[in-house]
Amino acid sequence: MKYRADAFFAVCCTLLLRMAEATAAAPGAPAPSAPQPVKEEMFVRIGGIDQWLTIEGKNRENPVVLFLHGGPGDAYSPFAAALFHGWDKGLTLVQWDQRGAGRTYGKSGPSIEPTMTVAQMVQDGVEVAQFLTKHLEKKKIIICGGSWGSMLGIYLAHARPDLFYAYVGDAQMVNWQKNVGASYMRVLELARAADDRPAIAALTAIGPPPWSSLAKWPQFRKWQRAYQAKTATAAAPDMTRSPEYDSPEERAQYAAADDFSFLHFVGMTMSGPITRVDLPSLGTDFAIPIFMIQGEEDLVAVPELAKSYFDTIKAPRKRFYLVPGTGHEPSVPELSLILKILTDEVRPLARQGGGRGSAPPN
């Protein structure tokens, strides 16, 4: 009986193998499709003006990540190739020069200043996300924001969770006034610990915020930057500009946009739109997963303030990470962690949710 059972098993295996070979060799059998890369750069009509987008990825089927730069005028576009090198293997990367930043500012000039409200920036972000879902045939995308972009990202997550798989924020700002206040106290504390008399004298002379004159800002920033340089010990990433953004004209345009956006959003009396942002007032319930990555030595987005806000959040999933030796600007280990989170924790959410598909309605 054992011989017959073994013989029968062998015959079945042979038949199954022949059937598989015949199916593979059958004419007209569909072959695996090769990955279709995407590399585009364009102005898109967003919020009534032309805004600059770049899209790059090795495979159009991959999940899409929309980066929300800080500043508000510090566009990532000139540095993206260096900063996010290799990320396009598993993700489609989108850089957006926001209203008043980079090439978007170069196209519109300062005439759009009356439109530069937080509400309009949020609406712009919604329109960019809608464009991407349709253009790249995605159901949803991922948002990843840093500094000012982390504020904008939280607004977007509240406004249109149906457009996004998850929010990933680094250097998370919470409330501009409270962030500046916490930063001032931390810098003064470091100065006193170092018995740095010039710093102590300068900081005590301007006094703690809130301030009503922009003239006090550079006096504070001098010491904030000095102590950030001392405390941020993690390796800095490559910030080489891409050649197409490295001409004198491009550099001048970038700098003008940066100054323009800062002066508008902060204001000469330090009462501009960004100074009134308070994320907790938007509510702390989220319909999408929330991930926050914070530099342990961040002197701008003080990690204690971000963690306190994070602890109040309710979301389908949430994670908070501290990166040692990292200040406000991204570090090599922080960028590595962000990529790991996008790849290991967020990318599967997009895969489960489907790649291509009909975009949500306007």
List the topology elements.
Elements: H1 2-25, E1 38-46, E2 49-57, E3 64-68, H2 80-83, E4 92-97, H3 102-108, H4 118-135, E5 141-146, H5 148-159, E6 164-170, H6 176-193, H7 197-206, H8 216-231, H9 248-266, E7 290-295, H10 303-312, E8 318-323, H11 332-353
Parallel strand pairs: 3-4, 3-5, 5-6, 6-7, 7-8
Antiparallel strand pairs: 1-2, 2-4
Jot down its keywords.
362 residues, alpha/beta, 44% helix
What number of domains?
2
| Radius of gyration from CA coordinates | 25 Å
Q: What portion of the residues fall into strands of 2 or more residues?
A: 5-15%
Q: Note the run of SSEs as H and E.
A: HEEEHEHHEHEHHHHEHEH
Structural class: alpha/beta
CATH class of the largest domain: Alpha Beta
Mean pLDDT: 90
Low-confidence stretches: 1-27, 354-362
N-end to C-end Cα span: 69 Å
CATH architecture of the largest domain: 3-Layer(aba) Sandwich
Could you name the CATH homologous superfamily of the largest domain?
Alpha/Beta hydrolase fold, catalytic domain
The CATH topology annotation of the largest domain reads as: Rossmann fold
Considering DSSP H and I runs of 4 or more, what fraction of the residues is helical?
A: 40-55%
Q: Specify the number of helices.
A: 11
Extended strand count: 8
General form: globular
Largest sheet entry: 8 strands, mixed
Question: How are the strands ordered across the major sheet?
Answer: 1-2-4-3-5-6-7-8
